[in-house]
Amino acid sequence: MARLFNILAIRELLRIHVARYSEKNSAVIKRKKTAKYIALKHFDDFYSTVYGKRWGEIKQALLMGEHKYMAVVNSFSDINRIKSELELQGAMNLKMIYETYKTVIDETPHKSSKKKKKENQAERLRMESVIANTQINMVQSHYPENYASKPTTVNTVDEDEDIIEKPKILQPVEMKSIEAHLNDVNLDMNRIVYPNAGLSGLYEYVPATQLKGLEDWVLESEHYSYYNQGADFSVNIEPDPALTFPKYLNIYTFEEDNNNRFPAPKKGSTDVLDYYLLDGTSVLPVLALDLQPGDSVLDMCAAPGGKTLTILQTLMPRLMVANDVQLSRVKRIHKVMNQFVNGIGQWEDKLYVTQRDARAIEDKDMFNKILVDVPCTTDRHCLHSDENNIFSTSRVQERLKIPELQANILTNALKIISVGGTVVYSTCSLSPIQNDGVVGMALKKAWEETNSIMVVKDMRRALDPLKCLYKFGNFGLKYGHIVIPTLKNNWGPMYFCKIVRIR
Over 90: is that where the pLDDT of 250 sits? Predict the structure, then answer.
């Protein structure tokens, strides 16, 4: 009897153990099926082939819980007070940073790349000193002239306090399974690329790791042949020597390695919020528009409204149209406008919020500046939230059609822009298909359908003074520019391309 009891007890223990193991294993499998997990696996497979060794740091920055913001000062509030408060917090005006660096670059004679490389470190230290002195002068200007003890440093640590050096955090070592190593050796391109796809030069963008299920891992490959059609299309590329900072546009940021957070904005005397916080790379497409007094501006995919609001802060447009396709997104634009420009009389007949499909807008020659900040995979967002995640298993087909949607929106912008006007295309994706691939296809389609001639602006020289804040990567780009996230300045990613219609 005792023996029978022991056997039954052992069987029950085994049953409980197996049940718990199955439950735990099921939870792991379920967790791995989340949209965030699918997105991360896709990026690991895809972007590691595009960005190589850089992908490790890019991924680490993207996975951080918080990223860096800039503050766009509201020109319709108490602008002098706002600027003073931000400067006393140690924030710096982006325009001041740009002009300071540009002056030094312009005064430095051209040197060979080898010699220039040797002097980079010394020049960087000198520029940091210039920026620090300018920042100190800016802070001191807010104190009375006869004030006895003006601050001589912008360091937020009390000089009398003992500074305790933080221990260096060990970086995790990426461990690979035996299966992963085998995948690196036994590459089977037929797992991903279909024989009749005709992808030619775009093979380099195909993820080369093992498929885990066709429904989750087809990715953009179905569209590669479509974008290959624009690969050989030629377009003139002209240099763009400098960025133009509008007089009334004030954007504040913290320097490299400074991850201070801006406090939540408050309402000023005009009953609107003091400043708008947005990702630090989001201001670049706006600056690339080269806004001038009297411009007619269309923001084709404007929600939530941050870029539209930044354009309004320049006080330059005579007409500003913020458009989006979904009612919920249009409501988000209205919310931002109500918080920042509500009751400002000068915009009553100049600012319009519309709900239209950007592919079907037919207002030809009405706008001379069009911002095309298209829907994309939103790489940072989809690694942190399963809500509204484009990598959800129920949105596979929608994800595959994103590049086609982007190309159609950009093509329409190029067709309706007035001659001499500027179109800026942008995404917050690292995907070369959604970026340069879409631009090449749209340029070709616009030429075939309208016989119009476009010029792409090479902004590398114009962006040089901002290398202290942004990490611009080339990575084989033909048309546009991309900012990649870094641990020192964790914003982005952001791709943007400036196109001007000359006929």
Answer: yes
Catalytic residue IDs? 428
Mean pLDDT is lowest, of 209-223, 235-249, 250-264, 461-475, for 209-223
d(CA 129, CA 489): 19
| CA quadruple 192, 195, 197, 202: dihedral sign | positive
C-beta of residue 369 within 8 angstroms of C-beta of residue 291: yes
Q: Can the peptide bond before residue 246 be classed as cis, meaning omega within 30 degrees of 0?
A: no
In sequence order, the 6+-apart residues with CB closer than 8 A to the CB of 237 are 455, 456, 457, 458, 479
| Long-range pairs for 268-272: beta carbons < 8 A, 24 or more residues apart | 268/74, 268/77, 268/78, 268/81, 268/82, 269/77, 269/78, 270/76, 270/77, 270/78, 270/343, 270/344, 271/342, 271/343, 272/74, 272/76, 272/77, 272/339, 272/340, 272/341, 272/342, 272/343, 272/344
The Cα 31–Cα 46 span in angstroms is: 21
Tell me how far apart the alpha carbons of residues 450 and 439 are, in angstroms, rounded to a whole number: 16
Cis geometry, peptide bond prior to residue 285 (ω within 30 degrees of 0): no
Residue owning tokens 């801006």: 262
The single residue listed with the structure tokens 């940091």 is 128
Residue 335 and residue 387 in contact, taking contact as beta carbons nearer than 8 Å: no
Q: For residue 389, give Cα distances in angstroms to 41, 292, 383, 384, 500.
A: 14, 37, 9, 9, 34
Structure tokens at 32: 């791995």
At residue 467's C-alpha, the angle toward residues 463 and 472, to 5°, is: 75
pLDDT in tens, 19-72: 554 454 444 434 557 999 999 999 999 999 999 999 999 999 999 988 899 999
Task: Tell me the β-bridge partners of 258.
Answer: none
What's phi and psi for 39, nearest 5 deg?
-60, -45
86 or 118: which leads in pLDDT: 86
Cα 230 to chain centroid, rounded: 24
**How many residues appear in the chain?**
503
